[in-house]
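Pasting as-is:
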Amino acid sequence: MTQLRASMDFVALGLPFDSALRAAAGDAALAHGQLELMLRMTIKSLAGLTIKETLDATQKSKNWELRQEILNIFKSKTKDPSLRMKLKALLGKCSRLSQERNKLRHNAWALSKDGSVVTKGGNHAWGASPNERRPNKFGI
């Protein structure tokens, strides 16, 4: 394995040995694909499009663009501020889930000298990996 110098000593690039952690990371990736599809289907329902039209229209859209499109379409359909805030709360939760998934997927993983799993975060420093989380009521 490649050795890298880190503020905490040396780390070895590698994947965690913990199969439960690896399975949880895989589950997060798969669940995120479902989240993305649900955002697209929300656009379909709000805009009155067919599935094909929606998929064609959102083909290369990023998740933040999908969330913004949902909000824009919804704003044109209702002026009720409480409904808008409920939608914004749901979309905010979607955003947080995407951010958590991105941390898992895009941060480099390594093993420290003591064998613990570390990740390189947004500040480019090695630190403890995300803790294994219990599934929420949706199983993710």
